[in-house]
């Protein structure tokens, strides 16, 4: 059986097909508390997504970042439909995803707070020649053009085509990403 046929068969048996909204009555019955408790055990890299809108700079902390494809270079992240940044994101053509270093916990916390405080300190950021805000001192960041916005459950899956990559020289800060695990920030340690 080919992968595509097997995947289609599995999706059909589970009652879910790509592009079809799941009926709430067919929900798995898993509580939000149990779901969050399980996912808290899986560490995630911390990113900040920034973009420029008609009303000024917009940004938010995201831990759902993932690489999707090498050729073409595609990445993804999710944003809640209730986010204060969702409207600006739907209007954006491009954005910057900052892959935070452990020294940037203060930025992760700032961009998880009230939207009016995120860009209040102008010494923390500048604008690229393409207009998007970029945060100073970020070990790596990616400028992407928005390729797809896909509503999925209570979030929107954002798929972006990487058009520019910035990576600091390989030093101690650049090699130590900021992680989020069990509701707290961590740095990785070798095993």
Can you offer a commentary on this structure?
The protein is of the alpha+beta class. The protein has 4 helices and 12 strands. It has helices at 3-14, 32-39, 86-91, 105-110; strands spanning 44-45, 47-53, 56-62, 66-69, 74-80, 94-99, 125-127, 133-135, 140-152, 155-167, 179-181, 184-186. A 7-stranded antiparallel β-sheet has the order 3-2-6-9-10-5-4. A 3-stranded antiparallel β-sheet has the order 1-11-12, with no helix packed on it. The chain has a two-stranded antiparallel sheet with strand order 7-8. A hairpin with a 2-residue loop joins strand 11 (179-181) and strand 12. It is globular and about 50 Å long. Mean pLDDT is 84; it is low at 1-20.
In short:
Helix content is 17%, strand content 37%. With 191 residues, it is an alpha+beta fold. A hairpin with a 2-residue loop joins strand 9 (140-152) and strand 10 (155-167).
């Amino acid at each position: 059986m080919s992968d595509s046929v097997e995947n289609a068969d599995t999706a059909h048996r589970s009652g879910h097909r790509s592009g079809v909204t799941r009926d709430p009555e067919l929900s798995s019955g898993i509580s939000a508390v149990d779901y969050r408790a399980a996912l808290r055990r899986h560490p995630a890299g911390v990113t900040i997504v920034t973009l420029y809108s008609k009303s000024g700079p917009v940004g938010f902390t995201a831990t759902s970042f993932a690489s999707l494809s090498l050729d073409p270079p595609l990445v993804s992240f999710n944003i809640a439909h209730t986010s204060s940044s969702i409207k600006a994101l739907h209007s954006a053509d491009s954005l910057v995803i900052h892959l935070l270093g452990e020294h940037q916990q203060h930025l992760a916390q700032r961009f998880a707070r009230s939207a009016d405080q995120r860009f209040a300190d102008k010494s923390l950021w500048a604008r690229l020649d393409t207009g998007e805000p970029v945060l100073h001192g970020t070990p790596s960041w990616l400028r992407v053009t928005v390729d797809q916005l896909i509503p999925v459950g209570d979030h929107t899956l954002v798929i972006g085509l990487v058009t520019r990559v910035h990576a600091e020289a390989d030093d101690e800060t650049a090699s130590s990403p900021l992680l989020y695990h069990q509701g707290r920030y961590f740095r990785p340690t070798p095993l």
